[in-house]
Amino acid sequence: MQRSLRYWSVLTSIATATALLAACGTSGPGGSKSSGEAATAWILTGPTEATFRASFDTWNKAHPDEQIKVQSFENDAYKQKVRSAVGAGQAPTLIFGWAGGVLKSYVDAGAVDDLTSDIDASTTSHFLPSVTKVGQIQDKLYAVPNNGVKPAVIYYNKDLFQKIGAQPPATWEQLVGLVPRFKAAGIAPITVSGQDKWPLLMWEEYLVDRIGGPDVMKRVLANAPNAWSDPAFIQANTMIQQLVDAGGFVNGFASISTKTGADVALLYTGKAAMNLNLPSAYQTIQTGDPSFLSGGKLGYLPFPAVAGGKGNPKNVVGNPSNYWSVSSKASDQQKKTALDYLRTGLETDDYSEALLKIGLVPPTTGAQAKLASSSNGPYLQTIYDAAQQAPNFQLSWDQALAPAQGDALLTNLQQVFLKQITPAQFSANMNKTLGS
To answer: Span of the secretion signal (predicted)?
Structure first.
């Protein structure tokens, strides 16, 4: 959905003011002999914030002349803020992102540097090739992995399944069949955050893949005429609305936010049976109720197969990782600091161990050897296997698409879940964004 010029003007002014204020701040732990040239990085609040901060603190203490100042922002606010800052030429030195269409828009605008000659094979060889590839545009490297591998899976409460005598669903028909059984027991079948929009997206991503296979979305990304009218989109959105009509989602899901972990809390407090989510759900449970994990009450399974569908049931959706890009507008000193950090300060053993501790699989080739020794070992192995064995790992659509298309997608999909538009209207609305 297109934003008004006034809206973007306000965002740009805020981003510019923030960047100017940041330049006047302190240089972080250890001080700096050239605080005006300190590099900057924006990160997300939530489970991984402490891990990122620890990495930068370690770097700053060891490199007093190459400081990196850090600011954190909530997920949705960050996505808008960073795009405005990039457009205004006021981006942080290290730009946190998801790659895909948003990264391509930065590359097309000349906003990020080509890292191909700066980050050589001695660095990239440590990452899983499939994850590194997502940070490339036309075979040139513009983004380096910085976070765990994040396929979406269904998390479920084993106690609630046992209460109604049910087995985890392997097919869509089985999942739908569980809805009346959980409702009869006074349990919400599925918890989801409808307020934040993006958690809804995983339902459509998986259904479209299971029904039509990866080529359906590839046609959208190629801007093929009327690509959003593919029967897989119509069928997927019809199935979503049927699930809504059946009461599959918790009452009031449209007002439930994932920012506070309220959606996942319904799972571990026994009020909802299932939650389709990224590994952030596991991290939320780890913080909210560790005993739920240590007591073996959490289960996790792949998204169910759809009868007659073309997609491989082993395909996954989500985020292969998150990534760091380097702003082309940064000073030479800031770029040097950022590149030195990416080469030697990012994927250290301590950083990998920190990711494992909070339930994330590092995007590195040597991660598998460390999984068994982790307290989160069985879960981490499941996530690792899902990512490694997937014939196709689809990047979240709101990031794979260009920014304007991604915004329109989230708005229209929320309207599908709320029964405000039909599947046909969704496709018609999204076809208008092709090529934008």
So the answer is: 1-22
